[in-house]
Amino acid sequence: xxxxxxxxxxxxxxxxxxxxxxxxxxxxxxxxxxxxxxxxxxxxxxxxxxxxxxxxxxxxxxxxxxxxxxxxxxxxxxxxxxxxxxxxxxxxxxxxxxxxxxxxxxxxxxxxxxxxxxxxxxxxxxxxxxxxxxxxxxxxxxxxxxxxxxxxxxxxxxxxxxxxxxxxxxxxxxxxxxxxxxxxxxxxxxxxxxxxxxxxxxxxxxxxxxxxxxxxx
Amino acid sequence: xxxxxxxxxxxxxxxxxxxxxxxxxxxxxxxxxxxxxxxxxxxxxxxxxxxxxxxxxxxxxxxxxxxxxxxxxxxxxxxxxxxxxxxxxxxxxxxxxxxxxxxxxxxxxxxxxxxxxxxxxxxxxxxxxxxxxxxxxxxxxxxxxxxxxxxxxxxxxxxxxxxxxxxxxxxxxxxxxxxxxxxxxxxxxxxxxxxxxxxxxxxxxxxxxxxxxxxxx
DNA sequence: AGGCCGACAAGACGGACCGTCTCGCCAATA
DNA sequence: TATTGGCGAGACGGTCCGTCTTGTCGGCCT
Lengths: 217, 217
Prior knowledge:
Chains A, B: It holds the Pfam family TetR_C_11. In chain A, about 65% of the residues lie in helices and about 0% in strands. Chain A is mainly α. The radius of gyration of chain A is 22 Å and the shape is elongated. Chain B binds a DNA duplex (30 and 30 nucleotides) through helix 2 and helix 3.
């Protein structure tokens, strides 16, 4: 027996390659892979994290990983998204909103301080850095990274700025997508590239400078 | 013969590991390695660029690379710095200064437009991205990347802002290292993470927002 | 109930690179 | 002229890649 293998596949025209039957997927293995991936990236770093290592740690066959994901980065991205969802469920929903007390400056400062703390959380740091780095060099993954991880948060900032605009605290003629970068991007760069101290005082200053400008009034 | 090998090294107490005799180094091989590294990163991308590949392309033994550099990233960093120096020599010195016409806004816009163009130069794009990405994940290399590549440019921006401050175009109480991030960081993030259009119009807007602030005057 | 299907764990497989090493070869030095 | 040490070349054992094979197991159709 054996021998006749692919030729026996009379049932299908051999069209779809990417996805096997998702309904038969083992959720137990999936979760074990997420846990193993996040643990390994935290322990030995992203470059030394290997598909074989993840499989072994998860008690899973390599093929199970290759069956559902296309790359190491892809596994980590989904693992990280899953981690995020689990943490959001654990915390309250309101942890992922921007407050509106009527004072934009104060509200933004609160949110940026929280972002600083979050980026320092060791559960986040290693995988988040790894994904950001991979996205810089791999445009495909980069776009996914931005749309799934960055974009939702940026949208919240834009929304809060729009409210401020309607309340007359931000100029009418301003492009909010650019405006939010004045404080979000410097924060991101300091964290990613270690270009300077990363503190609450720093983000407070950013908000002040961005709102009132560098030029004298 | 053979057999006695390390034990025959009576001359040295076996202390310094890192550097062989630099005076006997082949400059021809060094340059060939730089060229090969930059070419390969441009052609096949950073992850597929390999030490063996660089050695083969440069017509050089692998050991010659391992003798002088500690990693692929290290080779590329030096190659890129060398490329920068050669281009600076070719162009005039004044290409790497920030003009001072007395109008900060105008001067910064000119410089940021030039930066946009430079980041689009295909000779720069691939290696610069690769180094930035590696620096995000490898703190050691990251610090070198910042101090050798980023810092000199940031210093120029700080200098120009200081002149503006003395001319009364920028508030006295402002931390210039933070101030310059208001336009430099958003630019960097858009380029690195593809978070939005990357154009002259964009950088012009950044300068306006940063100088005059988001709040109504 | 029995048979079939497809994901699963395990791991063998050839191939790519790793980083180290050994080998003569050669130029500069002593 | 003899010594020294970097050099090109490439062999080496090792790791991990991505694919393929085998046998097991649980759900679904008949």
